[in-house]
Amino acid sequence: MTLIRLSGVTKTFPPQTRGAEPVVAVDDVSLAVAAGEICGIIGYSGAGKSTVLRLVNALETPSSGTVEIDGVDITGLGERELRRLRGDIGMIFQQFNLFDSRTVAGNIAYPLEVAGRPRAEIRARVDELLEFVGLAAKARNYPEQLSGGQKQRVGIARALATNPRILLADEATSALDPDTTQEVLALLRRVNAELGVTIVVITHEMDVIRTLADRVVVMEHGRIIEEGPVFDILSAP
Ligand code: ADP
Ligand code: ADP
C-alpha cells in the first residue's frame, strides 16, 4: 500500500532578489513510499530534499502536482484536517529542535498537550516513550544536561508521541559522531520494525542510507535522477 505519493510535484519560490529568476526547488518529482518502508533521499545541499519533506507534512504547498497521504490529497485540507495530518507525521531534525526550558518529559509531552490529551494519558504515554528510547532515568533532566545522542532520542520520542504512521528525518544524524550516529540509526530501525512506522530520511551521507534505508532516491537540482534498492544504487561500480 502506498502511504505517501507525490505526483508531478513542482515547487517554485519567488526570486530572492529583484529581477532574479524564480527558484525551482523541486522539479516535476513523482515518488511513492509504501507503508512500512524506510525510504532514503540523498543529494547535495540545495538538491530539494528538505522541500520534499516540507511538502509531505504540508508546511509547503506544491506550485503544481499533488501530494497524497494514504490516498488523500493534502493540498486543500482545512485547519482541523491539517492538525490531524500533522499528528500522523512526526519529524526529527539535525539540531534536535528541543525546547531548552522544558524537561525531557516536558518535551515529549508537548505534542500531546497541544492535542489536548488528558493528563493521565499524557503521563502514561510519556512513560512508555521514555522506556522505548532508553531515557527513563533522564525524565526530569533538561536538554543542556544531555549528550547529542540523548537529545536526538528525545527528539524521536517527541516525534512519536502522537503515534504517527510516518516519521520524517531531516539530516537527523549529521550533528552526531559516528558511534552515536549508529545508535540513533539502530533506534530508527526499531521504530520501523517494532512500531511499523514508515520512515523517510533525507541526508547527504551515503553511510546513513546504507545502514538504514530499504530504497534510495537520488536528487539533484530538484529532480530525481536515480531510484532503486540501496544495494543496486549505492554498491560501488
Ligand atoms: P536540500 O534540502 O537538498 O539542501 P532545499 O530543499 O533546502 O535543498 O532547497 C532547494 C533549493 O530551493 C535551494 O536552491 C534553496 O535555496 C531553495 N529554497 C528552499 N526553500 C526556499 C524558500 N523558502 N525560499 C526561497 N528559496 C528556497
Ligand atoms: P516541564 O517542566 O518540562 O514543563 P512538566 O513537569 O510540566 O515538565 O511535565 C510535562 C509533562 O510531562 C506532564 O504532562 C507530565 O505528566 C509529564 N511527565 C513529567 N515527568 C514525567 C515522568 N517522570 N514520567 C512520565 N511523564 C512525566
Q: How much helix is in the residues?
A: 25-40%
Largest sheet: 6 strands, mixed
Chain oligomer state: single chain
Structural class by SSE content: alpha/beta
Shape designation: globular
Total number of beta strands: 10
User: Number of helical runs?
Assistant: 8
For the CA atoms, what is the radius of gyration? 18 Å
What gap, in angstroms, lies between the N and C termini? 32 Å
Residues in β-strands, percent: 25-35%
Strand order of the largest sheet: 6-7-8-3-9-10
What's the rounded overall pLDDT mean?
96
Protein name: D-methionine transport system ATP-binding protein
Domain ABC transporter: 4-237
Subunit structure: Homodimer. Forms a membrane-associated complex with FtsX.
GO cellular component, one term: plasma membrane
Q: Could you explain how this protein is built, in words?
A:
There is one protein chain. This protein is α/β, with parallel strands linked by helices. Helix content is about 35%, strand content about 30%. It has helices spanning about 50-55, 80-85, 105-115, 120-130, 150-160, 180-195, 205-210, 230-235; strands at about 1-15, 25-35, 40, 65-70, 70-75, 90-95, 165-170, 200-205, 215-220, 225-230. A six-stranded mixed β-sheet has the order 6-7-8-3-9-10, sandwiched between helices. Strands 2-1-4-5 form a four-stranded antiparallel β-sheet, with helices on one face. Strand 7, helix 6 (about 180-195) and strand 8 (about 200-205) form a beta-alpha-beta unit. Helix 3 crosses helix 4 (about 120-130). The chain starts with a strand and ends with a helix. The mean pLDDT is about 95. One adenosine-5'-diphosphate (ADP) binds near residues 43 and 49. Part of the ABC transporter FtsEX involved in cellular division. Has ATPase activity.
